[in-house]
Amino acid sequence: LDGKALPEGFIYGCATSAYQIEGAWNADDKSPSIWDVFLHNKTTNDVTYGSNGDVADDFYHRYPTDIPLFRNALAVQTYDFTIAWTRIMPAGRGALSDKGLAFYRNVIRASNAVGMSNICTLYHWDLPQSLQDEYGGWLSRNIVDDFRAYAKAVFKALGDDCSHWVTMNEPRTFCTEGFGPDPDSAPGVVSTFKEQYTCMHYALLAHAAAVEEFRLGGYKGKIGIKVDGGVSLPLDPSSAADREAAARTMDFEVGRDVAPLYTGDYPPSVLASGALPLKFTAAEKKMLKGSVDFIGLDFYTSQWVTPTKNCTPDSDTYPECTDQFQQDPRTGLDIGRPTASSWNFDAPHATIYGGIKYLAETYNATNILISETGMGVLNETNLPLEQVLEDVDRIAWYRGVLSAMRQALDDGFPLTGFIPWSCIDNFEWTDGYNVRFGLIQVAYDAAGKGSQARHPKLSGAYLKGVLTKGNPINPY
Ligand code: GCO
């Protein structure tokens, strides 16, 4: 990378997720997920253009040509995909579907046929609706046993076929956006932030249970988790109050996911806050501590924080009690931050270098992947194709990311992989198809309607050049 060798075994790949690319929402044995139901029930147009993942990129049918395209256009050495629980185990528990299992076996076989290994994620937000209906999904301790059984069954069938297993993607995000005072994602349960914390508590236990099954099974690969968040910085670095607010926000937004994996419990500031509805037992702490061989950082943004003036128990930022101002990774523009600041804020560097440094120094993390990052471009849909494919803004974002990775490696931090989001344009949840993160374009409109033709973008060629051909990070 930029003239220096990458560490031995460094992984360069690209990522997608089942609900966002597969489509075929009710093909073969697949049962409805909470996202299928949540979006089918949307009467208002608060999901862009009423779009959903019913068809998406039609990857369920197009994977035989898409997977070689990922390899050829991006030269990635690994393909990071997620397994739909509802496709491989439609009832949420019990028997695996032969057709569902065959599909994921074929994806792995197609990856291996073009020289790619696989990172396989068990859960990326698409819970079987049947478990939501039966006991409220992630708000019930029952989910821990069902997730354990699901993981055990999938490992039994595919355990040795993936070099890396990820138990789940971003528990904090799916718990924060699916629950709380104004949930905008599935299952859309209006509640207080306490339910967000309950969801996260059970998600961490479910993660640890799956890891226990993986290790009991003696499978060859490594297992970990992908956590999201960003780096919180003091709005005014000279203010002790702002510095304390930034540290507290890191504890609540990243430490709450990560600390239990390394120490067995939540960060002290979280435990002391009184915000937690549930505490870990001694046996649970033992199961949680050391439950990752690697940790994936899905980091996109950083924010500046200052103590909030209006902290009330039912506000959904109550425990952090901070006002946060973010730089929008999609436009690179400061959103909401006081314009008085003269900061020339380099979001990719603060986010990526800062995230790696935080994990390594706070939790002594020893195997850190950048498992998602990228730039979502608003309204790419409406631009002329040649302008979409010459995605210089996205290249600028990745230039910052790669520079930050280079510095993290130079500073001796244990960075072991880079998995940009995403291999291909896909359904961006409540932004529909109107925000594009792909290194490969898909020819459909904001409602997901179109020819489905694929066109590699310049950013994909850029990453291929830098990561596999020794091109400089900064060609100018
Ligand atoms: C996430 C999810 C992805 C998103 C991507 C862009 O982090 O939200 O893992 O599914 O599509 O991050 O927002």
From TrEMBL:
Domain of life assignment: Eukaryota
Sorted UniProt keywords: Glycosidase, Hydrolase
InterPro entries on file: GH (IPR017853), GH_1_N_CS (IPR033132), Glyco_hydro_1 (IPR001360)
A single MF term (Gene Ontology): beta-glucosidase activity
GO biological process: carbohydrate metabolic process
Family: Belongs to the glycosyl hydrolase 1 family.
Name of the protein in its database record: Glycoside hydrolase
Organism the protein comes from: Roridomyces roridus
Lineage: Eukaryota, Fungi, Dikarya, Basidiomycota, Agaricomycotina
